Amino acid sequence: MSEEGTTLHDDRLIVALDVHTMADVQQLVTTLGDTVSYYKVGMELFYSVGPDVVRYLKQQGKHVFLDLKLHDIPNTVAGGLTSLMTLGADIVNVHASGGYTMMKTAAERLHAAAAEQGVPCPKIIAITVLTSMNDDDWAKLGETEPIADRVTRLAKLTKSAGLDGVVASPREAASIRAACGEDFLIVTPGVRPAGASIDDQSRIATPAQALKNGATHLVVGRPIRAAENPREAAISIIKEMASSN
Q1: Residue 165 pairs with which residues in a beta bridge?
Q2: Helical packing angle, 147-160 and 100-117, nearest 10°
Q3: How many domains does the structure of the chain reveal?
Q4: Which of 22, 45, 78, 91 has its CA 20 to 30 A from that of 158?
């Protein structure tokens, strides 16, 4: 966390841009100003306005987590990531359930393409189990392994395939950190400030709890975006994050 004059920000906070238009993006980014330096662009926004949103954010000097959750055969995922790399996103992702070969192929091809083009390679992380998934949904899939055990196992597989980290709920962050070491990204959705609505998330934690559990980045959407004063909401979360230090 850093404080310069009246600007308080923390690069570990990623604000989810779950909106539909470039006008909405520009309004929120302008409102948050220097308080927020990292944004998540997901399917809803990317499919609506296309790659221009990533280019806009980079032009504003922001970091971008391009959250498109690629999941297909190895060559298709690798090709998709190398195409997306030209946009300049800082983090891209795939589904760990696509398997070891898919992840390894994607990582190797993306690093090779970045080296060939002389550009920084984005960090590649993998989705473990969606944070909206609860025990009832999990059982209906025919799964008997506890969610937490599956998440940790997928994280270890992700690391062995050469990826940089995972997306997982804050509740599993501690076991992932213990299994995968310190140099491993753990990006956690399902983060809600104390007293906030849980919305469609199931496995959640407060910002301070998530960081104490081992998360490296926190993804927060509605508690900031839908707040009466989004900038003040972001500052409040940043202050709450600081209490974990």
Answers
A1: 125, 185
A2: 40
A3: 1
A4: 45
The per-residue pLDDT for range 118-135, each reduced to its tens digit, is: 999 999 999 999 988 889
Which domain, by its residues, includes 84? 2-242
The residue assigned the tokens 């230090």 is 245
> Residue for token digits 């992840």?
103
| Dist. CA 122–CA 76, nearest whole Å | 18
Examine the residue annotation and report whether 159 is marked as an active-site residue of this protein.
no
pTM (whole model) above 0.70: yes
Q: Which of 58, 62, 69, 156 is catalytic?
A: 69
Domain with 151 in it: what CATH number? 3.20.20.70
